[in-house]
Design a protein that fits this description.
10 strands, alpha/beta, binds magnesium ion, binds adenosine-5'-triphosphate, 259 residues, 36% helix, 8 helices
Length: 259
């Protein structure tokens, strides 16, 4: 469904315009009807990868295809919903005005009922007549989520959907993702929080320093994690990471980050 082939992205930085690689030779298939969690530390290249998938920026090298169309082709985006990392909206507009604007902008032209439905699913219907610059972070996130699910797209790309949400918000957001999963949507979401991996994902991809260091089914990674926890002697990790899977991925990122 989504195919990244040998994708490298570099940015020109500094006075001399030196190349800085954000993503290096990344090949990854995102399968139809699956939930793929995309994990990695700050600066790993997750958002850069996501922006390339949704066609906001182009790869420097390599290519991305969505349902056979190049990611830069508008047809690749027709069935795709995107929740950006830090959504923000123009000042002064009410939630309902913003979502209606996006509905037209994205050429979805959703009916009033469909817009209300999206707002309800995202848990922000109650605040639709409030100006969005008065929203809390979680409310802003919810409005962005409502926009991303407008038109009931087949593919959903969420960049850090759970960041900045309180425990209740996190649970509600996860429930929304579960519901989308039940409806066989293809979901690709990034996160730092390893604990979110197991319950939401069919598959886990881990990026460190722009490189893909793991890309497997959760069941397979769990097996590896169990084996790893038997041989791991150091018990200094307590509190933050509890399950073998969390500890395994934590160690993996730490080790790969040093290389
Ligand atoms: N427009 C840009 N110009 C220069 N460097 C950039 C640009 N965008 C991203 N980078 C660099 O690319 C690297 C990857 O950034 P990216 O935002 O993709 O990381 P991330 O995995 O999403 O991190 P986080 O978890 O903090 O959101 C970083 O080193 C960042 O500084
Ligand atoms: Mg990011």
């Amino acid at each position: 469904m989504i195919e990244l082939k040998n994708v490298t992205k570099y940015f020109r930085v500094g006075f001399f315009g030196n190349k800085k690689n954000a993503v290096k030779d990344l090949s990854l298939n995102i399968e139809e009807g699956q939930v793929t969690g995309f994990f990695g530390p700050n600066g790993a290249g997750k958002s850069t990868t996501i922006k390339m998938i949704v066609g906001l920026i182009n790869p420097s090298v390599g290519g991305i295809k969505i349902n056979g169309y190049d990611a830069s082709d508008y047809r690749a985006r027709l069935k795709l919903g995107y929740l950006p990392e830090s959504p923000s909206f123009p000042r002064g507009l009410k939630g309902i005005e913003i979502i209606s604007y996006y509905s037209n902008l994205l050429n979805i032209r959703a009916s009033k009922d469909a817009i209300d439905e999206a707002l309800k699913s995202a848990g922000i219907f109650h605040a639709k007549n409030i100006q969005a610059h008065k929203y809390s972070k979680g409310m802003t996130q919810r409005l962005a989520l409502a926009i991303s699910i407008l038109g009931d797209p087949e593919i959903l790309i969420f960049d850090e959907p759970l960041s900045g949400l309180d425990p209740i918000g996190r649970k509600e957001f996860k429930d929304i993702i579960f519901k989308l999963k039940e409806r066989k949507k293809t979901i690709f979401f990034s996160s730092h929080v390893l604990a979110d991996s197991k319950e939401l994902c069919d598959r886990i991809a881990v990026l460190v320093n722009g490189r893909l260091i793991k890309n497997k089914d959760v069941a397979e990674i769990e097996k590896e994690a169990e084996a790893y926890s038997e041989e791991r002697k150091d018990n200094s990790l307590t509190g933050e990471y509890n399950t073998p899977l969390e500890i395994y991925l934590y160690d993996l990122m730490l080790k790969s980050g040093k290389n």
